[in-house]
Amino acid sequence: MTEQLKTYFGNNFQTTPTEVEKLVSAFKEKSVKKNETLISKGEVCRYAYFVCKGSVRAYFIDDDGQEATRYIALENQFITTVHSFIAQTPTNEFIQATEQSELLQISYTDFKKLIEETTLAKDLYNKQLEVAYVTNHWRVESFLKMSAKQRYDFLIEVNPAIIQRLSNKIVASYLGITQESLSRLKVQK
Amino acid sequence: MTEQLKTYFGNNFQTTPTEVEKLVSAFKEKSVKKNETLISKGEVCRYAYFVCKGSVRAYFIDDDGQEATRYIALENQFITTVHSFIAQTPTNEFIQATEQSELLQISYTDFKKLIEETTLAKDLYNKQLEVAYVTNHWRVESFLKMSAKQRYDFLIEVNPAIIQRLSNKIVASYLGITQESLSRLKVQK
DNA sequence: GAAAAACATTGACAAATGATAAAAAATCAC
DNA sequence: GTGATTTTTTATCATTTGTCAATGTTTTTC
User: Which among B70, B133, B145 has CB closest to A129?
Assistant: First the structure.
């Protein structure tokens, strides 16, 4: 599993074997079952996770008790409740495994220390902030300019794995519509 | 005008007068008329702007030719096309003054240099990325869990200036609805 | 492997929002 | 200031999406 993370760093950053070793050794393996919750609303988020296998989502619960999924991480992606992790303040989101998953987790304390010590950790931090920004930016755009049908079609196009592997319920909560509406969109295709 | 930026840095960052002076002196004053365009789709974004007076928005044009407003900056806020500015790649957005405005602009070249030289510029960069992230994050949440009416009511609550100062057309494009729908929402209040 | 629970689909209807058009009001340009 | 342009409001109708309820299907649990 750590090999996978090493490869990821090698492919995505300008770095050295020493730095990679140092950073990777701060990650610990964690196996989670489907539906297992990693972080809950009200907690301070202590970990960031790298998905080696499986999938993990970040969601929150709105005033009507409905779940809304903000982000879904598949293999080779990081996931955390960004603001809570960075600022060490309570989060309003939940993080949950959507399939049986193999993860690598790093603690805030270790990560903070490594940011001071290695440029790789610093670069990772900046890149992840940027990725998170771009992801949300894109989602805002999609809500501003697309209908539910268009958002669904687009998701099939750019990230079919989400639709293939996750339940209708989760996909609907990610698209911002009800399950029933999603069921209908799939038919009227 | 530079006084305003100095005050802003003093209030929001741990820094020294020397650093503030160095960073602020890289900004140049720019007066813009209402509706003046600062950056257009297809261009590489060379500047980030600090709004001293007035208001500026970032918007894009969807496939139907409709404008959709992603972000509105009022006094004492920064605005730029984040990804284009950071990565120096072409943007798909426009940046436009929504009122007669007094701005301070800094070039990418100068900013990049200052990030290496002063911790204030580095801190500003990180903080702006974080603010941008939180802003978009919040917008995603609002689309996932609120109706158009709820988004409007919420905007009145947290940022009434946007509704008071900007045209219906722009507010509607910011909420992701048509002008006509916005007109109706205001009545059925 | 059977019972229970969770999830997905479908139908009927309601509510929200969009599209189009026309009139009223506000703003702009000269 | 006045005519031209743009913006806002209002009305009607169409479309999209939500709600509720019933049923079928899949998954989980013991």
Answer: B133
Whether residue A52 lies inside any domain: the answer is yes
pLDDT, residue B185, reads: 92
Q: What pLDDT is attached to residue B189? A: 59
Where do the H-state alpha helices sit in B40-159?
82-87, 108-117, 119-145, 148-158
CB contact under 8 A, B144 and A62: yes
C-alpha A72 chain-centroid distance: 5
**Is the CB atom of residue B34 positioned under 7 angstroms from any atom of strand D?**
no
Per-residue pLDDT tens digits for B121-148: 989 998 998 899 999 999 999 999 999 9
Give dist(CA B73, CA B58) in Å, integer: 8
Task: Give me the domain span that covers residue A42.
Answer: 2-116
Asked if the structure places residue A25 within a domain, the reply is: yes
Chain B positions touching A134 (Cβ under 8 A) are: 83
A146 is near strand D: CB distance < 7 Å: no
